[in-house]
Amino acid sequence: MKAVYVVRINNYFPELCEITIPLIKNYAKKIGAEFVEITERKFPDFPPTYEKLQIYELGKNNDWNILSDADNLIHPNAVDLTAYLKPDHVGYFSGFDANNMFEMDKYFERDGRNLGMATGWVMSSNLTHDLWTPLEFGWEEARKRTKREFIIDEYCLSRNLAKFGLKFTGLNFSKAIWDQFPHLGVEEEPDRKAIVEKAKNIVKEWKI
Amino acid sequence: MNAVVTVAIGNIYEKMSKITHPSIKAYAEKIGADFVVIDRQQISQSTPHWEKFNIYTLLNKYERIIYIDTDIIVRDDAPNMFDIVPFTKLGMFDEAAFTDGRISAMEQACKTYGVIAKNWDGKYYNSGVMVISRTHKYLFKKPEVEEFNFYEQSYLNAMIAHYKELGELVMEDLHYQYNRMTCMDKYTGEERFASYLIHYAGYPSLEYVLELIPRDLDRWKSANGKYNYKRHILVRVFGGLGDQINSEPAIRFLKENIYPNDDISIMTHFPRIFSHLKLPVFHHGKFKPTVDGGYYDINTLPGPETLQWRVVSNLLCHTVDYCSMAVLRRVLPVKDKQPKMEVTLEDVGNVLDVVGSNVNINDLVCVHPGRHWPSKTFPVDWWQKVIDGLHEAGLKVCLIGQEEVLEKTRGTLPVEVREGMIDTRDLLDLGSLFALISQCKMVISNDSSPIHIAGAFDKPNIILIPSCKHPEHILPWRNGNQDYKAKSLYKKLTLEDVSAQPTEVYGSLADKVKGDILDYIADPEEVIKTALEMCNGESK
Questions:
Q1: What's the pTM value of the predicted model, to 2 decimals?
Q2: Window A:150-169, CB contacts with B under 8 Å
Q3: ipTM value of the model?
Q4: According to the model, what pLDDT value does residue B407 have?
């Protein structure tokens, strides 16, 4: 069983989601996955991005779990990534040096790969489900460990990658694959109208 | 009373005896036999090998004798050969099938010693290890003439053949593990250490052997009684891309079912085919042996000079079967005949970079207008009609194929690409071609590799235009049969014009066409109609 999750707390950006969610749903259907919108808070002390960690409970019986940000567009012909990702690997589109954004702890040090994971698109299998393990400490402690509060989800997943020694792969093997999963990057673009316009233009170019 | 007897005469054998005799002596003690070393030239006039005939006298004292050459070492768990060979039989290892020149050696020995062995069974025994009983005493009366013919060995074999023919001698063929020579390396792929007695006959020089034996004894010692050694197998994969793909099921079966714990290496022109097997794969010419000893060497596509080809040629059976006979000496169960291949996301990305990220690979009808032998090469106009017709019928045509770089005997025909068609010819590497075919709607081709690639995947429909091979000898097995999502279209086969009778003594070639190829292959309209039916059937 497969599932595609999108976190939408507090009716996140409806004008954009009107464009993105149908495409994400369509992708889920195409690859035989259940589409799950996470709308309720289970970790109210943490920033909303941390609700991505609900996947630990929601997806524990699944073969594949895919997390997509709500500001992702997915081309209708996009590749079924679960057909190619090795189940013993975590897959994500982009990353960064962990020590630039996070405080290093014993897990990061021991692992030594210095992996920071962007969580706009993350895939795991039943072999790598440890990836979604919530932090063993609360927000008071967690907030001290990241440069920015809203990347606490990226901190947690990156730390789990190190803690459990999980293998990983990038997914952007070609420009064409990248083009099939454009991430609109709402957090980097304060102009919401511009974001919606960008999304519309991409979809228009796709001629769908 | 029994004895283990050996001969060690001369400086070099004296040196060797210091290394080898402790293990032979220990064996003698283990089986409760005396250890007798013949260390002086007593009865021979030429080489010390004829001193083995002292056994004639020794059999007055000993009821049974195991003779062991001094260039042999014995493992500490070697069973008692007196228990293996019945008293009435002479135990020796038949080396005829594993060595050269034994027939002429026998002929010469029979001539020299006046032996007539009309019904010789072709067996030729190595005299390095012999399990002898008193009843065989007559064999060890030394002849006057000491002809050098594998030392005394051919004389003994002539006598054995003679007495067998008279019905006075019955042999017990010893397993090679009791007289393991280097000639067995390539037949077994087994390390010599896996045998109970290692016999250093056949090495380049005695000096080399003197250095080698101590190392080998150390190997046994370091095993601490756990004598588990991997077999070493080298699979040489030959033929065109399609042939090499068709060898994959046999090699996979070899790895998974026959030798799951052994060392298998593959040599091929297309390493990518075998990447999923997690075995060492080398380009031809790049393989370097890593073990001291031989590999069991397999050629997946034996040529016309071989016995297998004379039994059935690759043209007259399925290549999956032909390769499995060569690799495994068996035909695979149907469920195991489907090739498997690995496709990675990188391969898919490469395809999308070529065809465009907007294209749905699942919609593509891949056409391979293949060029090879005249009997497999159809007119350009014929292919043009096919692709134009498919295009006009609304199917998304994608041309595939690759010009062979080295020999240029294979490639694709210069059909014109219309607007809206996709042309990937010469743009995809092998992995990307696998990725494209694995996801496409249909593959249309002559007898060529894309058909075999499609056979590895469930998704693509297949239309085969056969000519010089029967379609049942080309179409892949998927889900247990060859009709699964597959059709072959033809009027008649050029194969029918080839002289393939069992009485054809000069062989025959299938690469030419007698007359017009259009009289053999299906009309383009039929190909288009069938493609539409299959694609529409799928969409329903």
A1: 0.89
A2: 169
A3: 0.86
A4: 64
